[in-house]
Specification:
mainly alpha; 11 helices
Length: about 200
Amino acid sequence: MSKIREKNQVLIIEVACRLFALQGYAATKMADIAKEANIPKPNVYYYFSTKDNLYRAVLESVIQPLLDASKPIEQLDDPAEALTEYIKTKLRISRDHPYASKVFANEVMSGAKYLPQDIADGLLIQSKMIIAKFESWIDEGAMAPLSPQHLMFTIWAATQTYADFSWQICNVMDKAELDNNDYAEAATFLTQFVINGCQVKSTAS
C-alpha cells in the first residue's frame, strides 16, 4: 500500500506541477488535477488535504534541488571547480524540473504571496552563503572585484531561463524540446562565460 500511495502522490505532484505552471495557482482546481491524474478527487484530498498543501509539495519538489544545488559553492574551495559544478547542477534542475521551476518563477514574480515562510527563509540563507563565498574569493584575489549579488543573479537567470522560457528557446533553436547535448553545450558556454568574464583563477594545486 505504501508503494501505491507513493506512486499516486508522485503522479499528483507531477500533474499539479504542470497545471499550476500553465494555469496559475488561483485558476487550478483540485478537481482539474484529479481528472488529469485519473485519480478520484477524494483521494487527492486524502493525500494532500488542501490545495495549499499540494502547492507546497509542488514548490518543495524544486526548492530542495535548488537548495542542494549550492553545495559545490559551499563545499569546494576552488572557485573554478565550484562554479562549474554549480552551473551544471542548476541547468540539470531546469532540465529535470521544468514545470516546477515555472511554478516557482511565477510565485516569485507574483510577489511570493503563497510561498511558505520557512522556504523563503531557507532560500535567503542560501543566497547569503553564496554571496559570502563569492566575497571570500574576491578578497583572496581568485576573482575580479565585482558585485557578488549581481553575479549570483546572473547565474540564476542564465540557468533557470532554460526552464522558465523553454518555449522561446526551443522556438529559436527550431526544436520541439532540448536534449542532453543542448544542456551540456549550455553548461560549457555559461561556465566559460562566467569564469572568463569574472577572471576566475583556479586555486587547485
